[in-house]
Amino acid sequence: MQYQAKISREDGVYIVTFPDLPDVNTYGETLDDALKNAGEALNGALQADFGRGFTLPRPRPHKGRAYHAIPVAPHVAVAYQLRALRNGRSQSDIARTLGVSYQAVQKLENPRSTNPSLKTLEKIAETFGKRLDVSFA
Hints:
Elements: E1 2-10, E2 13-17, E3 25-28, H1 31-51, E4 67-71, H2 74-86, H3 91-98, H4 102-108, H5 118-127
Antiparallel strand pairs: 1-2, 1-4, 2-3
């Protein structure tokens, strides 16, 4: 999962905005700094928004030289995807279905503390009738 960052040069610095996430902005002295800061800003904002119960807007394609793909950190993406898979069911219900404690499900859905094993992710995918895809890009 990734979002497009629009990077423009203004007054000697690179300004970063996210068209799909208008409240996420940053800058950098160099393009490399701007791209690094974009990743930190994006993932920090998504972690904070997760804690407030926000849902992710669907990333839209943006074309042009000014746009750069910024990946969502895997631990953040997993937390959002797990919440979406629950589809309104309680964490307790999911814990019973998975055969784990309520606290384990809470931890899985918290982007600040999640660290699921591949076996756990496979079990979750199977439970929800999904396929787990893992890749190195």
